[in-house]
Write a structure and sequence with these properties.
Elements lengths: L15 E6 L1 H6 L2 H13 L3 E6 L2 H9 L8 H24 L5 E6 L1 H5 L1 H16 L3 E6 L13 H11 L4 E6 L4 E2 L11 E2 L1 E2 L4 H9 L9 H12 L5 E5 L5 H6 L6 E3 L8 H8 L3 E7 L1 H10 L8 E5 L7 E5 L5 E6 L4 H7 L4 H8 L13 E3 L12
Parallel strand pairs: 1-2, 1-5, 2-4, 3-4, 5-9, 8-10, 11-13
Antiparallel strand pairs: 6-7, 9-10, 11-12, 13-14, 14-15
Helix pairs in contact: 3-4, 7-9
């Protein structure tokens, strides 16, 4: 990673862009001026999709509530009320330029299903081709707590992969990732370039303070991991700075850029690794873990030592080594009950028990993505 210093940055030829605005950014910016900037970017040949927060905040304002309720059902009700006014604000501002917006309310559950993910891709591509600005928000009114993105940073990164964006920009109330907490360390320096999301970067996020106090820097790094592993760079920048997106595209050294992984995986395996729903865990012995990590092998029943959770054939699972460290994520070839019957068995023994002439891998190497570096308890993505 590189730190402060004068200079310029080449973000490449950006033709398709995702911009995320959080609730605090929406409250702080000149909204019409931001929309003017988006319209100018479109006129310059850049397709723009927006990911927005703010439905709950708008609902609270409309119903005269000063404090966000703790109960999920009340928050969902506020989102239902506020989403109407939120979209009206976008529609009204873009209408000044004769530009239409399209509302897309989406859930993690939808993107965790491959056919729904592809449907979202096709819909958003049609909107962009028609000159419409997609405005995406998590569908808080129906999303279950255990299957939510929970923050729109990760949603923005996911949408960037849906539409094959050239860049994702997270507009935040903090201007960059710092090497220490700038609130308590006057000498903290911004990190302008992150070449790889590794343990050092997660450690920086851990030192940055709480989610609320830093604008959710930990969640932004989780989002960066999703984007860069798909080959999409991600930029964190200060949303309150007028024209900051245009400045970044022009080469100014603003915010923190997470560089794309040059060894990006194919679309399907990225979806498996970062967007598919995890339904269980398959535990493997040390030899199988080494074969997966070092040789890119498929996982066979003989290497499995344990099974946790209930899952069906084709569901997403985590593969863990004997220490509990994640080895990979993949689509499993057996349901949980069947897999429990063949744990640790040779292929001929499996064929005999299942009365089959051939034996499928537990997880085929083409249906698997090896784990990347992360915190000790790696966050599910998303």
């Amino acid at each position: 990673m590189s730190e402060t210093g004068a200079g310029r940055r080449d973000l490449g030829d950006v033709k398709r862009l995702v911009i995320k605005l959080g609730s605090s950014t929406l409250a702080a910016i000149d909204f019409d001026a931001f929309v003017d900037e988006v319209v100018a970017l479109r006129a310059a040949g850049v397709e723009v999709a927006l990911v927005t927060s703010g439905a709950v905040a708008f609902g609270m304002a409309k119903l005269g509530l000063a404090q966000r309720p703790a109960e999920l059902t009340r928050t969902q009700a506020l989102a239902a009320v506020g989403q109407v006014d939120l979209m009206a604000r976008y529609q009204g501002s873009f209408a000044r330029h004769g530009v239409y917006v399209g509302q897309i309310l989406i859930t993690h559950q939808a993107l965790a299903q491959r056919h729904s993910f592809l449907n979202a891709r096709h819909t958003m591509s049609e909107l962009l081709s028609a000159g419409v600005v997609p405005v995406v928000n998590e569908n808080d009114t129906v999303a279950a707590e255990e299957l939510r993105f929970g923050d729109n940073d990760r949603l923005a990164a996911a949408i960037a992969t849906v539409i094959d964006a050239d860049l994702a920009v997270l507009l935040s109330d903090i201007d960059a990732l710092y090497d220490a907490d700038p609130r308590v360390s006057p000498g903290a320096r911004p990190i302008h370039e992150v070449e790889r999301v590794d343990g050092r970067i997660w450690a920086v996020a851990g030192r940055a303070g709480s989610e609320v106090g830093t604008g959710g820097m930990f969640s932004k790094i989780r989002a960066a991991e999703i984007a860069v592993e798909a080959g999409i760079p991600l930029l964190i920048a200060a949303g309150e700075v007028p024209g900051v997106v245009t400045a970044a595209l022009a080469g100014e050294l603003v915010g923190t850029r997470f560089a794309p992984n040059p060894a990006r995986v194919d679309r399907r395996r990225h979806w498996i690794g970062f967007l598919s729903k995890l339904c269980g865990t398959v535990i493997v012995d040390a030899g199988a873990a080494a074969a997966l990590r070092d040789r890119g092998s498929s996982l066979l029943p003989i290497g499995v030592t344990g099974v946790r959770g209930q899952f069906e054939r084709g569901d997403g699972v985590t593969i863990e080594d004997p220490t509990g460290a994640p080895v990979a994520r993949g689509l499993v070839g057996y349901d949980a009950d069947t897999l429990c019957k063949i744990v640790g068995l040779r292929s001929d023994e499996v064929a005999s028990i299942l009365q089959r002439s051939g034996v499928d891998p537990v997880v085929h190497r083409n249906d698997m993505l090896l784990a990347v570096d992360g915190p000790t308890e790696h966050p599910e993505a998303p």
